[in-house]
Structures are given as C-alpha cells and as structure tokens.
Design a protein that fits this description.
Blueprint lengths: L2 H16 L5 E7 L13 E10 L4 H18 L4 E6 L14 E11 L3 H4 L2 H9 L2 E5 L14 H4 L4 H9 L2 E9 L5 E9 L5 H22 L8 H9 L6 H9 L2 H5 L4 H20 L4
Parallel strand pairs: 2-4, 3-4
Antiparallel strand pairs: 1-2, 1-5, 6-7
Helix pairs in contact: 1-2, 4-7, 6-7, 6-11, 7-11, 8-9
Amino acid sequence: MTILELIKEIDNKAVDFFCDEPQIVSIFVVGSMYNLEKYTIRRNNDYDIRLLVDKVTPGVLDKVEKFQKQIVEEFTNEEIQLGFNNNVGAVNHRLSEKKYNILLHFLIHEVNDLKNFLPLTHQVQYGKNHRILYGEDLLLDLCKKFEPQYLITCHEGIDYCIDMLKRDVYKYLIWVKNDKGFIEFKYCEIPTPNEMIAESVFYSLKNVLNNLYESCIMMNEIQGVSSYEYYRRLCGDKKQFEKLIICVENRDEDLLYSYGDKYDIFNETIAFLEVLKNKILCMKG
C-alpha cells in the first residue's frame, strides 16, 4: 500500500468510525492533503483531519482518542510511522528519523463557535481548500468577509506570533476534560521545546503569507502571480528575507538553522513579521 492509498484508507475508516456519532455534523480534510491528486509525499507529512460537531462532549473526545490509537497501531510499519496531535497551533511532524512520518492533526470544532474557535488565519484556507468526507459542508462562507488587517490582531495572527517568538514560548489551544468531567477549550503555553523551534517559525509565517496571498487574490489585487513570487514582492528591497521565504516554502530546516541559534532564527522571523505587519497596515481595508 502506498502512502496516498493509506491516506485514502484512513479517510474511509474515519467515516465508518464516526458516522454513527450523534454529535457529528461533518468530517473534512484541510491543509496540503485536501487535494491528494496534487500532493507530493514528503519525509514528514501533516494530515489535517477535522470534526465539526454540535457540541464537544466527553464521548466525542474519547472516540477521537480511540480512533487515533487504532489508526496508529494498524498502519505503522517498517517504512511508515503514524502519530497524532490535537493542539490548535504548531505541531511537530518528525515522529521518526528513519521512516516516512504521517501526523494525524485531529482538531474538533463546534458549529456555533466555528468562527470564534477557528483561528482567522485558517478561515480562508478552510473555506477555499477543503475536502468533505462526510456530512454537511458549512465551510464555504468562511472566506467571504476576510480583510488583511485582521491578520494582525486575530488569534494566531502577526501580533500573536511575534509575542510567542519574543517570549520564546510555544502556545496552543486544546480540548480537555477537567477534574469535574466537564469539557474546556484550554489555552496553554510552555517554553519552546527544541523540536518546535523550526515548526514555530514555519507556523508563524506560513499562515500569514498564505492568507495575505489568498486575500489579495480575492480582492483582485494580484492575478497570475505565484505564491512564491508574491512573497518575494512583499520583501521589497529587504532581500535578506528571501532566504527565510525559501525556508518556509520548502520547510527546509537545514537552511533555517544556517541563521544561527534559536534566538537568531526567532529575531529574523520577528523582523520579517514586522515588515509584513507594516505592509498590511498600508493596504486598503
């Protein structure tokens, strides 16, 4: 079984496993694997699968955990390593140094709070690039009222990422059961683990760059320009950021670490985010 065949099998198993759950509204895939025909297999692969539910309950969380463990056990083999993560935030895809890695990035959204809990930096991507596996498609309207200025102050926006990098912390949200058995959508932050240094940079820049590009297309400000060329134009005369763009586009950790230590990398990323922030402030609302 090839990796793409494996992904399609996980799609089918997700539908079979969750379709009888009364809280489920839809199951869908976003991110780079939403279009498998155009997907290129990498050493580290992020499979962004999402559940849209009426309400997050202890039963829903238990069922997600059971499904994840079942998939990891069934499909991990000598060549492929599977794992899972439920954080809303940057995630570490490097599960094994010797195998192809597939991380099940499994997030849950409630219908009534979809726009509140779904970071605005994801809403355009969810709305434009998703693959429904089961249920209703409620995502198409997400990207219709998007303005670039929102990328500065929204959750996972520029100010959020600058703060994360300046304070050297890894920030994320996650559904948890508290001591009384109730469900909470909990904010967490910890000192940046070494394995999250590169991911924090890729996460901070990729969301902002992608959504700037998509919003400019929606506003008919650019036509027929590749994302990479658009990112280069954003640099203007600040050519030192072109290497950082290449790092992000190719998820090239070796090139990223050529900047120096963690603080050199973070400072360069912060400087680029400040440039992007100024670009956005000069855009028409």
